[in-house]
């Protein structure tokens, strides 16, 4: 997949069928939009493309002053879209100036100007200043330079499948409910770093994972997870928290995974944690023995979960 710099001339770009959206998480609704752009590309003899934005519009428009966190930070989003078999991806730097473009200016510069011959977007897609352009105004703004398809609302349990809904489920720890919306389990990519080396001595060695702070981290607690190491998936349990049994004033959340049937040195490796099921709260135990007994129980609970859900793995 190629990424174009945006100072391109129209004649340098092949005619495109382009999906439009922010696409955080590339959930099942997004996948319909993107795959329809690909289908139309094949049917109309065009190249397929996705146009997305970075950072999230809320950073620039000031609705969300907090550090923004994503279901899929940009590099992850690019990877997922690439796997859908899209030829080109345009990542528009979302600035105040861009947000201020009139709907017609956006269409002229970013759609017609990029040689787009077919547009695909969802029923609620908006464009241009204050989101004034929408799928009803698109025929007018298109100047008959391109055709378009509108993807109807994909719902699950009578509610729209949306990035907002997925973000709030994730923040409530409901990782097990995500596959219905995301089309896969939630994953975070990170690097294995050194911890306090205590895990080994209590019989539960753990990989401490440094996860990019652009990811949404599920709430504190213990989870059934799978982790991908060197292209192989392993089952395990993960603790997200401050390890209160040992640390009085820890400031940084640690994410550590104990894998079953695994004994390799993986410091410095990139790994993917796949979040499956919230098991319990993190607790302060009176001693190591009590903690170890509980982790053994966590392991049994996770093994039971994976056994029951065997058909998926
Ligand atoms: C499945 C699992 C559950 C855990 N639960 C707790 C907990 O409830 N409270 C706690 O203080 N630490 C908990 N821990 C963290 C352990 O205290 C930690 O793994 C151990 O101290 C080793 O830390 P280290 O890797 O920094 O050496 C848990 C770890 C795992 C793997
Ligand atoms: N459930 C859905 N059904 C059909 N199209 C959708 C659905 N969700 C999003 N889309 C479309 O996918 C594209 C990307 O949407 P967007 O990035 O705004 O996602 P979203 O899930 O609607 O996000 P948010 O929760 O922030 O509103 C848009 O064209 C949008 O209309």
From TrEMBL:
Catalytic activity annotation: FMN + ATP + H(+) = FAD + diphosphate; riboflavin + ATP = FMN + ADP + H(+)
SUPFAM superfamilies the record matches: Nucleotidylyl transferase (SSF52374), Riboflavin kinase-like (SSF82114)
Pathway info: Cofactor biosynthesis; FMN biosynthesis; FMN from riboflavin (ATP route): step 1/1; Cofactor biosynthesis; FAD biosynthesis; FAD from FMN: step 1/1
Assigned EC number: 2.7.1.26, 2.7.7.2
Domain Riboflavin kinase: 181-307
Pfam families on file: FAD_syn, Flavokinase
Enzyme class name: transferase
SMART domains given in the database record: Flavokinase
CDD domains in UniProt: FAD_synthetase_N
Zinc found in the keyword field: no
Stored InterPro entries: FAD_synthase, Riboflavin_kinase, Riboflavin_kinase_bac, Riboflavin_kinase_bac/euk, Riboflavin_kinase_dom_sf, Rossmann-like_a/b/a_fold
Domain of life: Bacteria
Alphabetical UniProt keywords: ATP-binding, FAD, Flavoprotein, FMN, Kinase, Multifunctional enzyme, Nucleotide-binding, Nucleotidyltransferase, Transferase
PANTHER family: RIBOFLAVIN KINASE, RIBOFLAVIN KINASE/FMN ADENYLYLTRANSFERASE
Recorded family membership: Belongs to the ribF family.
Protein name (Swiss-Prot/TrEMBL): Riboflavin biosynthesis protein
Source organism per UniProt: Neobacillus kokaensis
Lineage: Bacteria, Bacillati, Bacillota, Bacilli, Bacillales
